[in-house]
Amino acid sequence: MKFFVDTAEIDDIKELNALGIVDGVTTNPSLIAKSGRDILEVTKEICDIVDGPVSAEVVALKADDMIAEGRKLAKIAENIAIKVPLTWDGLKACKVLTGEGNMVNVTLCFSANQALLAAKVGATFISPFIGRLDDLNLDGMELIADIREIYDNYGYETEILAASIRSANHMSDCAKVGADVATAPPAVIRNMANHVLTDKGLDAFMKDAEKAGIKIV
Ligand code: G3P
């Protein structure tokens, strides 16, 4: 499974990218607003750091306006994936923008039917939001599994990009049900390294090393 990092914070992207675990980046208007940076400027900086797809989201609601914004975003760098919302206009924009050779990430997906439509219009990525479904006592992971089954039934090449990931367990669960990509905030990716038994075991090893006076360098 590919890991994308869901942030517009440059320091986090640099740190995770240097580890070689970042296959791409996703942003959205809320993350850009949080960064306090200009969208074109910060997105260009991210594209210069990361080789993989960098999703930049349109803010228009009408298809023609989304297409114009998407074309402008695509000029930032070759690795831009234009992000459009899963609305009827977003699907129209996806069809045109993918037809022009762009990567398109269709976002705000909350149902298998929406994912089916995104695949039909040639989306590069479909972004089902797990956490926001879980917030409503619905099963976000079940949606990922359903989309996997549907896409596999017909050989759709649209990649399932699991989004709205809130916990480390979401990451391994996404990998189990076959998401192609999971995008997570930096804190969630770092948290994947944590285990209470690792901390406990390390603490015991450190105490014993100190007692025995073990020195290596
Ligand atoms: O990738 C979409 C993500 O940023 C949304 O996450 O936690 O706001 O639902 P969240």
Walk me through this protein's architecture:
There is one protein chain. The mean pLDDT is 98. 36% of the residues are buried. This protein has helices at residues 10-18, 29-35, 39-49, 63-74, 88-99, 112-120, 130-134, 140-154, 168-177, 186-191, 196-212, and strands spanning 2-6, 24-26, 54-57, 80-85, 103-109, 125-128, 159-162, 181-184. Helix 1 runs parallel beside helix 3, helix 4 packs across helix 5 and helix 6 packs parallel to helix 8. It has an eight-stranded parallel barrel, surrounded by six helices. It is α/β, with parallel strands linked by helices and 217 residues long. The two termini are 38 Å apart. The protein is globular, with a radius of gyration of 19 Å. It contains eleven helices and eight strands. The chain has one domain: Alpha-Beta Barrel (TIM Barrel). SN-glycerol-3-phosphate binds at residues 6, 26, 28, 129, 131-132, 163-164, 166, 183.
